[in-house]
Design goal:
mainly beta; 7-stranded mixed sheet; 4-stranded antiparallel sheet; about 60% strand
Length: about 120
């Protein structure tokens, strides 16, 4: 079994910052990619940011320059620093990992991020 425990999130004013973290545990021999998805009410889930084992990152156009993803391989933890938050960033954010040996994708339960004045 694989468990993903997220922390962070909450309510913040426009222009503010929040930090999310997600720790993976369980039957994990190797983690390839890690990342964060989000889903707003009435919208499709989108991949916000991802990072490979080697540290290569990818971002959705809507968050480039504002969000930063990082990971600690030893702790099997992925982080998302969100700056310059906008109301349209409001969504449930879920962490994601792609592990190997055996391979599989896993998602966390999600944490609410609300950007509002």
């Amino acid at each position: 079994q694989v468990q993903l425990v997220e922390s962070g999130g909450g309510l913040v004013q426009p222009g503010g910052s929040l930090s999310l973290s997600c720790a993976a545990s369980g039957s994990i021999f190797y983690i390839d990619a890690m990342g964060w998805y989000r889903q707003a009410p009435g919208k499709q889930r989108e991949l916000v940011a991802s990072i490979t084992t080697g540290g290569s990152t990818s971002y959705a156009d809507s968050v480039k320059g504002r969000f930063t993803i990082s990971r600690d391989n030893a702790k099997k933890t992925v982080y998302l620093q969100m700056n310059g938050l906008k109301p349209e960033d409001t969504a449930v954010y879920s962490c994601w990992i792609r592990k190997g040996y055996p391979s599989g994708d896993y998602w966390g339960q999600g944490t609410q991020v609300t950007v509002s004045s």
